[in-house]
Design goal:
single chain; alpha/beta; SH3 type barrels; 7-stranded mixed beta sheet; coiled coil; ATP hydrolysis activity
Length: 1268
């Protein structure tokens, strides 16, 4: 499993412990005073009472050298935290968001309780939670001045807004709007419905939004933002909002896309939207924005604020929740983490449902207000109305925007009932009326059609009914897609189908379900083990979620492009204006006639006229637009400007595109639904056209405009190029992004492994050195022990000799001396034991006093800093007071007043204006009264403002003096306590030293006596030196014992160090193994996300559909004499194999390069038509125009005849119910032919248009019959 790697980002003001390279426990402590960049910080060392008068020392440290310190307020000690925290404080945030107001923050002094009972939360940092309820209460009591700090205007405004919103008793809840250009109209409709619902409630009703207002993270489209602001401007109810993961930009989530909405409208005298960027208590409920760090989320759920709240609103992933109808979340927060007996409402997942557990509260997902993608088909959306206790009062169904329906039979299709009028809310009875399915204009219907049914003979009654129903629904404005299933299944899909009979069609799979299906197939094929499958599934789903796997890829609507006309002026060989109709003309032959010198028809402008529409739409004449979207050779030689106007409809909405180009610049205009969407530049306008119409040169060249060389592109394409082409059928962008993400994570994991290997190498070197030192210490200890044994043996020998001598001696004096010697020795031993016990008693009595002395010194140091700060406040407030005094003196001098006794009751202005020195008019003169009143009012205002400023400065100065006095008083008490403690310590120490010295003096005296008695005994037994030898042996023995004890202590110390180093090395190896496993898994996922893995798995279905459809066209064009097979190898290469029927009727494989020109052309035409049909059938683009430039090259007479009939069939598919062209809806097919081929097929065309070139100019002779 991949671990989350986080690095602590320190902030200015953090207390830290500076780790030394030797892991010294007495490491220095400091405070972050500056961020230097590149992972470096400036740290000021903490000062103690002894060095508080010395300048603070500042050192430079890396962030990895720092460890979090917690400051215990109770005893004034800096306590080292057990581990580094990941909580950061954003003290420099100057945003005017409500989240800046930190109110009633209660740090948890004890460990957060572990809801799971496994100690997992025991070291989590305390979360920062903002209590607006407490803030409003203090604001209403008039005691919020201490809360709002240095910016009373901003914070008071926020408190007024919170107090206003708190008066509302009902709340309408919605979430996951996912506003984007594709969903903008639906989002505006949702906002109208939400506001109307709130206004219709009897009680005062506000709105709650639970995250993901925007769809694309990081950037806001100006048009979308302006439209949303315009819609919100009419709102009259407040809205409380929390950002979701799609709204957030930064990892912490405080930078998000809801900020521009904070002042979108006003309710009364306060802003309507209240955006909560941090966990916040409001109306006894806890609102939690999306929190990516799961440990931070656990800390929030375990906090006292969460436990005390009656409800919880959040945007989070909960284990067991439905990510969609098929996938259950296996990550996120466990339901057991939630406190019991709470109302919990969440955004994030779009399916309205609840996660229930007997051990916790029920978590309700409100769900998105409309069906965002096909994965939400048939889901019933809702708005939830809550009462003042946050209980669900009612659920209101909502039905806006495009809805998605999945059907699998013709009977279901025939039961669909179309409502032409849109409604915002529907009832269950209305939905189930007469057993039919109610749909509206613009809804999307996806029908799964078995291939064996879809590929029946042309006059099948089934397809007659199917085509008729599809045509009827499309004419009524519905998007109908037919998806082929069944018949030919790849080896992968076949194995998967055997295991999962109710699996969804692969085209409809979400990325999560696709990943699951792929891994299941790999497991069935024994390519991976079950355990590896579980790991790859978990990590892969995490990556998909990280890159927003819930992206609304299916939001893109089906595009029906109907082109009605193109008008060209000065374009190519056309100098004069030519209008060319393009709608409902049937099969049209476009030929040329050159009356100038040269070829008969070449160079007349046939292709220029036919491809002018492509240039108007995309700025390109072929499938390869130039980098600046300009074409150099489109301007007529006799014109200064080339201009093309394209008119048509996109999904029944009219549009006009006017593209022009001069020698120096180009211009582009775009109108849709009579609204001018032209932007500031041609590039931006082109992007708007591609977005609104869903067209670009690439897709148009595959669907509508086939140039002379473009028809061979698919057959000639390289493997990678063909895969790029297939991306039009199966979008692979998300998987490519997932591949990059997985590989980047794998590279980072590899880097971590390399770092671990370097650390392990260093640790192994340290262990080798320690091992050598331990071995040497062990040898030294053993040697010392051997010497002790030898010294004991010698000493015992000497004792034996002395005892023998004493036994032989009869002298009573010797016996007396011996007795005295034993007595003295016993007394020396007693004094030695007394000394040791006294020394231990001394340590036991002085240790608590020294600990207390250290703590008091820390408090004194802190109080000194506090006193310095208060002194700075006094000086600052004194300056403000002096400034206010000077200002009052200036006013007295300006207005000739004396304000020492207050404002005079008969305050009057002076005779002359203090500004311009002109005499003021008397009251009786004209205009005098008004002028005097104005001057007097200005004078009064200035005096009042000056006195208020003076009063504020005076109060602030008094408060600063008071705080400084209190601090000084407390400091004096602490310093007195410190002095007392130091005095007590010195007295106790002096007494103990005296006592120990007395014992040592007694021992010295006794030893002297012992020495005298020994000398006397030596004199008595002069004949022998045994006594001295015994003493020498005793000294030697004691010395050897001391050496052995020292050697043994050294050995034990080094052994402990070696054991610790080995344990640390084992930890490093374990971490390295985990990192290697992560790197292996991520590398495997990166490979399986790539083109050789799941992308191939997904492409297989598209390749099968393309081959089946292409074979249908190839059978038609070749009379069944050719076959073209497309398949994916076990790797990822797309194989193209050609087969030609021999004289015996059997097909034989032939390389593509050996096909004749006509056979090659048949294959390329079949593949091109099949590709265009699939693009249209999958809803990517359906065009009414088909342009074929010289399609009959290399075809013989039978081939040309078959081609003409096929194009006729494609045209007839719009009106008829015949087979095979379900994706096409062509109303006009323009075929460009040379004279010979044109004469041969002239009677097959509905009309013949001729481009005539005469005197250097080309004109169009339109077939009047076909144009009407």
């Amino acid at each position: 499993m991949v671990k989350a790697k986080t690095t602590k980002k320190w902030e200015v003001g953090d207390l830290v412990n500076i780790l030394s390279k030797t892991d010294d426990v007495s490491a220095q402590k400091g405070e972050i005073i500056a961020i230097r960049g590149g992972g470096w910080y400036s740290v000021g060392l903490l000062q103690t009472a002894e060095n508080c008068d010395v300048d603070q020392e500042i050192i430079k440290c890396r962030g990895t050298q720092l460890q979090q310190l917690a400051f215990d307020i109770n005893d004034g000690k800096a306590v080292e935290s057990d581990k580094k925290t990941s909580t950061s404080k954003n003290n420099n945030d100057t945003s005017k968001n409500a989240s800046n107001l930190q109110i009633e923050i209660t740090p948890h002094s004890s460990a957060i309780p572990d809801a799971n009972g496994d100690g997992e939360l025991s070291h989590l940092p305390s979360p920062t939670i903002y209590d607006f309820d407490a803030g409003v209460l203090q604001f209403q009591e008039g005691s919020s001045r201490d809360l709002i700090g240095n910016n009373p205007v901003l914070d008071e405004r926020i408190l007024r807004q919170v107090a206003h919103h708190a008066t509302y008793e009902r709340w309408v809840v919605f979430t996951d709007l996912h506003c984007s250009p594709a969903t903008l109209d639906t989002c505006l409709e949702v906002l109208d419905v939400v506001h109307d619902t709130a206004m219709q409630q009897k009680e005062k009703c506000g709105v709650l939004f639970l995250g993901d207002f925007w769809h694309h993270r990081g950037t806001l489209r100006v048009d979308c933002l302006n439209a949303i602001l315009g819609a919100l401007r009419s709102w009259k109810v407040p809205m409380v909002m929390i950002p979701g993961n799609h709204d957030q930009v930064t990892l912490g989530g405080q930078n998000h896309g809801l900020t521009p909405l904070e002042n979108a409208y006003r309710v009364g005298d306060v802003p309507g939207p209240l955006v909560l960027s941090h966990p916040t208590r409001f109306r006894n409920a806890l609102f939690v924005p999306h929190v990516r760090d799961i440990n931070a989320m656990k800390a929030i759920l375990s906090s006292r604020e969460c436990q005390d709240s009656s409800a919880l609103f959040l945007h989070a992933e909960v284990k067991g929740a439905l990510m969609n109808d098929m996938v259950v979340s296996t990550q996120g927060i466990s339901p057991s983490m939630f406190p019991m007996h709470k109302h919990v409402y969440s955004g994030h997942f779009h399916n309205p449902h609840s996660v229930k557990s007997s051990l916790c509260s029920t978590i309700e997902y409100v769900g998105s207000p409309y069906q965002i993608s096909l994965a939400e088909a048939h889901q019933e959306k809702q708005l939830v109305v809550l009462n003042e206790k946050w209980e669900c009062q009612k659920r209101i169904p909502i039905s806006v925007g495009r809805r998605h329906f999945k059907i699998s039979s013709l009977e279901e299709l025939e039961q669909i009932h179309v409502e032409l009028e849109k409604v915002s809310t529907v009832t269950a009875e209305e939905v189930e009326r007469d057993g039919s399915t109610d749909v509206r204009r613009g809804d999307r219907i996806v029908m799964s059609v078995p291939k064996k049914e879809h590929r029946r003979l042309e006059n099948s009654e089934y397809h007659t009914t199917l085509a008729s129903s599809v045509r009827t629904l499309r004419d009524k404005g519905l998007v109908v897609e037919l998806r082929e299933v069944g018949e030919k299944i790849s080896p992968w899909s076949r194995k998967l189908a055997n295991d999962v009979s109710d699996s969804p069609e692969f085209d409809e799979m979400t990325p999560e379900s696709s990943w699951r299906a792929y891994l299941k197939d790999e497991t069935v094929r024994s390519a991976i083990s079950d355990s590896d499958c579980d790991t790859l599934l978990r990590v892969g789903l995490g990556i998909l979620q990280e890159i927003d796997s819930d992206s609304t890829q299916s939001i893109a609507m089906q595009r029906n492009l109907k082109l009605t006309s193109v008008t060209i002026t000065g374009f190519g060989p056309f100098e004069d204006t030519v209008e060319y109709p393009l709608d409902d003309r049937g099969l049209v032959l476009l030929r040329g006639s050159n009356k100038d010198y040269g070829p008969d028809s070449n160079g007349t402008g046939k292709s220029s006229l036919a491809m002018a529409t492509l240039w108007g739409l995309t700025g390109s004449l072929d499938a390869r637009p130039s980098a600046d979207m300009k074409v150099a050779d489109v301007i007529n030689d006799n014109s200064k400007t080339a201009k093309v106007t394209v008119e048509g409809f996109i999904n029944n909405s009219p549009f006009v595109i006017i593209r022009s180009k001069t020698a120096s610049k180009g211009d582009l205009r775009f109108e849709l639904n009579d609204v001018d969407l032209t932007t500031q530049s041609v590039k931006e306008t082109q992007s708007t056209i591609e977005e609104k119409l869903g067209v670009d040169a690439h897709i148009l060249s595959r669907v509508a405009f086939y140039g002379q060389h473009g028809m061979n592109d698919l057959l000639e394409a390289t493997d990678s190029k063909l895969k790029d082409e297939l991306s039009l059928l199966v979008p692979l962008d998300l998987w490519q992004q997932a591949t990059s993400t997985a590989r980047a994570k794998a590279r980072y994991a590899r880097k971590r492994v390399d770092e671990m290997e370097g650390m392990i190498k260093l640790r192994k070197s340290d262990i080798n050195g320690l091992s050598s030192r331990v071995a040497g210490a062990e040898r030294a200890r053993d040697l010392k022990q051997t010497r002790v044994l030898e010294a004991e043996a010698i000493f015992n020998q000497e004792l034996t000799k002395i005892q023998e001598l004493l036994d032989r001696s009869a002298d009573s004096k010797l016996e007396k001396l011996q007795t005295e010697l034993e007595s003295i020795s016993s007394e020396i031993k007693r004094l030695s034991d007394l000394y040791d016990s006294t020394l231990a008693d001394k340590e036991a009595q002085l240790k608590p006093l020294e600990d207390e002395l250290f703590g008091v010194r820390g408090i004194v140091t802190t109080m000194i800093r506090e006193k310095n700060r208060f002194e700075m406040d006094v000086r600052s407030n004194k300056i403000l007071l002096d400034s206010a005094t000077v200002h009052i003196n200036q006013i007295q001098e300006r207005w000739s007043l004396c304000l020492s006794d207050g404002i005079p009751l008969d305050l009057k202005p002076p005779e002359f204006c203090p500004t311009c020195n002109q005499p003021l008019q008397a009251e009786g003169s004209e205009g005098g009264s008004e002028g005097l009143e104005s001057v007097q009012k200005a004078m009064e205002n200035e005096i009042n403002e000056a006195r208020i400023s003076f009063k504020k400065a005076e109060v602030a100065l008094e408060e600063s003096h008071r705080k400084m006095a209190e601090c000084s008083k407390d400091l004096e008490l602490k310093e007195e306590l410190l002095d007392d403690l130091q005095l007590n310590h010195e007295e106790l120490l002096s007494r103990w030293v005296t006592k120990l010295n007395n014992i040592q003096d007694g021992m010295k005296e006794k030893r002297n006596t012992q020495h005298e008695i020994s000398s006397q005994i030596s004199m008595v037994v002069k004949e022998s030196q045994l006594i001295s030898q015994k003493e020498a042996a005793k000294v030697r023995l004691d010395s050897e014992k001391l050496n052995f004890a020292h050697a043994n202590q050294t050995y034990e110390t080094l052994s402990r160090e070696l054991a610790n180093a080995i344990d640390f090395l084992e930890d490093l190896n374990s971490q390295k193994d985990e990192e290697e496993n992560d790197q292996r898994i991520l590398s495997s996922i990166g490979e399986r996300f790539s083109q050789r893995g799941v992308q191939t798995f997904i492409l297989q279905n598209a390749v099968n559909s393309l081959q089946n459809t292409a074979q249908f066209y190839l059978d038609y064009l070749s009379d069944g004499s050719q076959r073209l097979e497309l398949s994916l190898e076990a790797g990822d290469k797309i194989l193209r194999n050609a087969f030609v029927r021999g004289a015996d009727g059997e097909f034989r494989q032939r390389p593509l390069s050996t096909l004749s020109g006509g056979q090659w052309r048949r294959c390329s035409l079949a593949l091109s038509f099949a590709f265009a049909e699939l693009v249209a059938a999958k809803g990517r683009l359906r065009s009414s125009l088909l342009v074929l430039d010289e399609p009959l090259t290399h075809l013989d007479r039978s081939g040309r005849t078959k081609f003409g009939k096929l194009v006729r069939e494609i045209l007839g598919a719009k009106q008829k119910s015949e087979k095979g062209t379900s994706g096409f809806e062509i109303s006009t097919a323009i075929v460009i032919l040379q004279d010979l081929s044109a004469e041969e097929l002239e009677e097959a065309f509905d009309g013949i248009d001729t481009v005539v070139r005469n005197h250097g100019k080309s004109i169009l002779k339109l077939d009047e019959m076909s144009s009407n």
